[in-house]
């Protein structure tokens, strides 16, 4: 089980075609802040029907897109 599984489940349960979460919201969901390892783990999200879209370090947001 990945440390990001709670986030992947949250995104999947949301069900929207596109979800934008702030780094703070992600921290509240998984209990830890995201770090560089997020880039390695993000491929796990495809198993949940989503992919990571844009990661904005400036705005501190991550966009998740539903896979068609």
* Major sheet details: 3 strands, antiparallel
Mean pLDDT: 96
Order of helical and strand elements: HEHHEE
- Share in β-strands: 25-35%
Number of strands: 3
Strand line-up of the largest beta sheet: 1-3-2
When the domains are counted, the total is: 1
Rg on CA atoms, Å: 11 Å
Question: Can you walk me through this structure?
Answer:
- By secondary structure, the chain is of the alpha+beta class.
- The protein has one domain.
- It has helices spanning 5-14, 23-30, 38-41; strands at 18-22, 50-56, 61-66.
- It is globular, with a radius of gyration of 11 Å.
- The model has no long low-confidence stretch (mean pLDDT 96).
Quick structural summary:
This protein is α+β, with helices and mostly antiparallel strands and 68 residues long. It contains three helices and three strands, in the order αβααββ.
């Amino acid at each position: 089980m990945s440390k990001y599984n709670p986030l992947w489940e949250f995104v999947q349960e949301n069900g929207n075609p596109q979800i934008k979460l702030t780094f703070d919201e992600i921290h509240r969901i998984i209990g830890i802040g995201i770090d560089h390892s997020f880039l390695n783990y993000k491929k796990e999200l495809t198993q949940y029907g989503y992919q990571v879209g844009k990661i904005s370090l400036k705005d501190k947001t991550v966009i998740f897109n539903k896979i068609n």
